[in-house]
Amino acid sequence: MTLTKRQSKQLERELVATLTEACETAKAEVPGFSWLTHDTAGEDFSAGLRVTWIFDSQASLDRALADGHGERMRALTQAALAEADIEVPDLTACTQFDSEEACALAQAGDWQARLAQLRRSRH
């Protein structure tokens, strides 16, 4: 969906609010989970949306995925998107997982560079 600048800002505010709720829920439920972020690319907000769930370490991330928490976090993502009235073409493609540790090692803690690199590697 292509949006006007005003619509995009409103949608962004709604998305931040719903993702904040999802983040707080995950912090209470998933050991090692720290925070989440989102970004968009291109003019089509829904198609370009990526939600990244960040863990404190790669070990925590691996353990969470092995314990099935990845599906829970995808469900939280889906609920947040639905509450903000956002439909994405592929929930799995729009949801990714990473760790503070991986960012520190590969990009010296620069999350903007890390997210840009992750986006490039997914295409």
Structure notes:
This protein has a single domain, classed as GMP Synthetase, Chain A, domain 3 (2-Layer Sandwich). The protein has helices at 5-29, 45-48, 58-66, 69-83, 91-94, 100-107, 111-121; strands at residues 33-39, 50-55, 95-99. It is globular, with a radius of gyration of 14 Å. The protein is built from seven helices and three strands; from the N terminus they run H-E-H-E-H-H-H-E-H-H.
What can be said about this structure in brief?
The chain is an alpha+beta fold. It has one domain (5-121): ANL, C-terminal domain (GMP Synthetase, Chain A, domain 3, 2-Layer Sandwich). It has seven helices and three strands.
